[in-house]
Amino acid sequence: MFLLAVLDSAGIPMVAGVDALIVYLAYRNPAGAWLSAIVAVIGSVGGSLFLFLMARKGGERYLARFTSSGRGARLRGWFVRYGMLTVLVPALLPIPMPLKIFILSAGALGVHPVMFGFVFAGARALRYFGLAWLGMHLGRETLPYLKGHVVELLLIAIGLFLALFWLVRRFGSTSGVEVSS
Q1: What is the pLDDT of residue 31?
Q2: Which site among 96, 118, 134, 179 is 20 to 30 Å from 85 CA-CA?
Q3: Residues in CB range of 6: below 8 A, 6 or more apart
Q4: Alpha helices of 29-175 — where are they, by DSSP H?
Q5: Burial call 118-128: b when 16+ CB within 10 Å, e when fewer
């Protein structure tokens, strides 16, 4: 679990690999479900911090390779404007959403590592503990249940983002990045 979570968050995509393993382990061994979630959170945070620190060391030049034009430039703009919200929402939800570019942006644009780690760990804890709980209660039906409720999950993601977006607009940026105009 730990190795899979580290690799997935460090940039080697394993779509739903960690999620599926948490659900499987929770279903097969409910007594160990919470431990699986803890190990997944630790591994995921570790892998993401590796990617974050790599981008921090390479700085803006490294990020520019991935965000100089097109979709990458738009994603970078979102990060500069909405900061850690762009990390929180995709890290929280068990549906494929872009995340690595926001981790790279957080590192390259100088977000404090403790702030990044706190937000990322919180999102992953909610996600993985939620999946462990579902696995314990729904068993084999967990992943089909999630697949059958993708629209609802997307609506939750949109609602969460809009609520947080409103808070950012109302009270200021969450990026932790000073951007000169």
Answers
A1: 94
A2: 134
A3: 43, 44, 46, 47, 50
A4: 33-67, 70-82, 85-92, 100-108, 113-138, 142-148, 150-171
A5: ebbbebbbebb
Return the structure tokens found at 14: 């394993």
Pairwise CA distance, residues 132 & 127, whole Å: 9
Do 43 and 29 form a contact (C-beta atoms < 8 A)? Answer: no
Q: How do residues 106-124 score in pLDDT, each as one tens digit?
A: 888 778 899 899 989 999 9
pLDDT in tens, 37-68: 999 999 999 999 999 998 888 766 666 666 66
Report how far residue 66's alpha carbon sits from residue 26's, in angstroms, rounded to the nearest whole number.
37
Share of the chain above pLDDT 70, in %: 81
Tally of CB atoms within 10 A around 3 = 10
Ramachandran class of 111: left when φ > 0, alpha when ψ lies in -120 to 50, beta otherwise: beta
Per DSSP, 83 falls in state T
What are the structural domain ranges in the chain? Answer: 2-171
The residues, any chain, with a CB within 8 Å of residue 126's CB and separated by 6 or more, are 92
Amino acid residing at 141? E
Per-residue tokens: 39: 């190990």
